[in-house]
## 1
Amino acid sequence: MFCGLDNIYCAFMGSLNNLSMLIKQYGLSKGTNEANFLIEAYRTLRDRGPYPADQVLKELDGSFGFIIFDNKDGTVFVASDCNGEIGFFWGIAADGSVVFSDNKELIKESCAKSFAPFPAGIYI
């Protein structure tokens, strides 16, 4: 699932079991999907902080992995569920860029020997 809003982009894999509750909590429309929700949660952290990211992320229940890129601030925010149920991989490409994907073979081909499963848990 991919979503972009106000120069913030989110690639989301998996699902959130408590999305309906989170939508109500944040006052979002019923048609909001996981990627839309994460962009809104990220904007809340960025614009109304200072709240630690784990304060919002600890509310997420499900099997997931996601990447948020904030084009305005040039920041990347990456997380996966604590159980590591979604296959999520990262590596360093030949040009030095960091690559994330749920496709192990793509990462393996793009990053040669410099790739690994993304660790379970939340990372900023």
## 2
Amino acid sequence: MKTFLIDRYAKGGALRLGDSPEPELRENDVMVQIHAAGVNLLDAKIRDGEFKLILPYRLPLILGNDVAGVVVRVGPRVRGFKPGDEVYARPAQGRIGTFAEFIAMNEADVAMKPKNLTMEEAASVPLVALTAWQVLVERANLKKGQKVLIHAGSGGVGTIAIQLAKYIGATVATTTSTANVDLVRNLGVDVVIDYKKDDFENVLQGYDVVLNSLGKDTLEKSLRVLKPGGKLISISGPPDPEFARQNGSGWLLQQIMRVLSFGIRRKSKRHRVSYSFLFMTANGGQLGQITSLIEAGAIRPVVDRVFPFEKTNEALAYVETGRAKGKVVIAVK
């Protein structure tokens, strides 16, 4: 099968178009013929080697963390899916590889594709929607009437997180550029901070939750908008010791993450708020709940551009510019 893969970690390196064997189908797996795959900044970070300490992949590695397609075969113990089912998923982190013609995934990580989405739209959803769900619903336990600041509201995670938070009944603020103010307003944002004109930390106060996907400066400024007892949850780091424990990292890696996050954890304590790092995980059950929200019209994906499969490198380069509104997708089939 045709795949886009890396042979070694290289910052900014091109993915190689190659031929790879079809993946092995385990007894709890579904084999999916890939119709479309979402492209994420995570793909670039894996290629660059940023996660080689915490995600020890064997090279060569097929990249790709989002998929929509059709089930073509199932393992003998699979009960939830059959050939012909249209599905979507974020594969488990140890089994990524959606920049390809086929992928095998554990059925626990897979959900039925929303009936009201195209394959390309569906492929844009899993990673960012699961991230938003795991931050806002699981980690933050966001409630109706609470206030949440979602940074980078026009990005992949931001566009979904805004809609999920509004569905829950929260008051939502976001940061974005002048060009994307209308986009985030149309998603339901209550307070828009144009970062080219205003400093969010001087405008907002008394927030319950901040979802950070940006750098160190934004992370530290976010402490000022939270009320005592508030939660600062970052998906862009730095990783903390709790994440290291959950990830099964050894003692040395736990100590490294303790040091990396020491500054922000100390400052959080001083502001009487909690800091945590979240690296989303595959979860077909949660994705099934997200499917229900999409089919009910509570959440709609925002897709910026669809590239043909052979232009996967161009798609990844476009994601890296940081200018995409919502998600970028490659059409595989």
